[in-house]
Amino acid sequence: MTRKLVAITLLLAGLGSGLPAAAAGGIKLRAQAPIYVDSKGVALSAPEGVAFGAGSAIAVSDTGSGRIATFRTGAGGITPIAEFKLAEVPYPTRLRITSKGDLLVLDGRSRRIARVAADGAFKGWVDPGAGGDPVVRGFAIDRQDQLFLLDVSVPRVIVADLSGKPVREIPLPAGRSFFSDVAVGSRGDVFVLDSVGHQVYVVRSGSTDVTPLGGSLAEELEFATTLAVADTGHLFVVDQYGDGVVILGPDGSFQGRQGMMGLREGFLRYPSAIAYDPAGFVYIADRANNRVQVFAIAQ
Fold it and tell me: Which of 45, 138, 189, 194 lies at a C-alpha separation of 20 to 30 Å from 181?
């Protein structure tokens, strides 16, 4: 717990500008203006998912309103584009954007993944043809549009194409674990988050071995739920119950903590998802604050 308290002390020391910034192994996260409303000025409600993808698009699962809102980021900032509801996905949670701009949206109740066009047209389901009855809790997509489905019923990661056709499986360690998210790095490494075990596991590209990435994070995390990987190999782990983000080095070493519980911009309350933008930003679904918090990554 000592390192966690030190990180929070550093964070408080950086509040002179009114926006928190915490050093993390050479990385600083600086809070930017959050996303509060859609293109019609309607406020977000308890968003549980956020994604970044093709065409500098940002997609948000506005879960409390049962809809998807889309945005685009550029030199002029973040611009709202559209919003839509899907009868097939009444409770959107996790989502991703393919290289073609389609959305993949997980319904938190049925645990099925819908494929949706950028204009909101439903294009069908991604049904994994793997054995058993997969219970998908989270999923990731690499730059070749290969899917990585976290099936918590076994547990395992099912690697599949966009239709759901399995390519291979990655068995995960059994025991007292609660796997909650999966992410894929730019080099093809696969990362899996164990919330109860306070551990990140990694499967390096070209390997089948599932190994711990660094040591236990029990002192740094209360209950982590999602993660994202930067092109540098750094990991951003959302500590939902701790109302913050823990930053890990490429080797899994603890390198800092961003955020505290609060209402002000730059603070978080019950954050639920995170997305990485290679242009140097991360987007966090700040669920209890009804917004998407934006942080710039600076050296």
Answer: 45
**Amino acid present at 19:** L
Q: Determine whether 7 is exposed, middle or buried from the number of CB atoms within 10 Å of its CB (0-12, 13-18, 19+).
A: buried
Q: How many CB atoms lie within 10 A of CB 18?
A: 9
Per-domain residue ranges of the chain:
1-30+179-275
Strands 254-258 and 271-277: unpaired
Q: Helix or strand or coil: residue 221?
A: coil
> pLDDT band at residue 26, thresholds of 50, 70 and 90?
low
3-state secondary structure of 25: coil
Q: CATH assignment of 1-30+179-275?
A: 2.40.10.500
Residue 220 scores a pLDDT above 90: yes
Q: What does the alpha-carbon distance between residue 212 and residue 251 come to, in Å, rounded to a whole number?
A: 10
Q: In this predicted model, what pLDDT tens digit does every residue of 71-96 receive, in sequence order? A: 999 988 999 999 999 999 999 999 99
Instruction: Give pairs for 217-224: CB < 8 Å, separation 24+.
Output: 217/246, 217/248, 217/254, 219/1, 219/2, 219/3, 219/4, 220/3, 220/4, 220/246, 220/254, 220/257, 221/246, 223/195, 224/180, 224/193, 224/195, 224/198
Q: How many residues does the chain have?
A: 299
| Mean per-residue pLDDT over the chain, rounded | 89
Percent of the chain with pLDDT over 90: 79
pLDDT at 28 over 70: yes
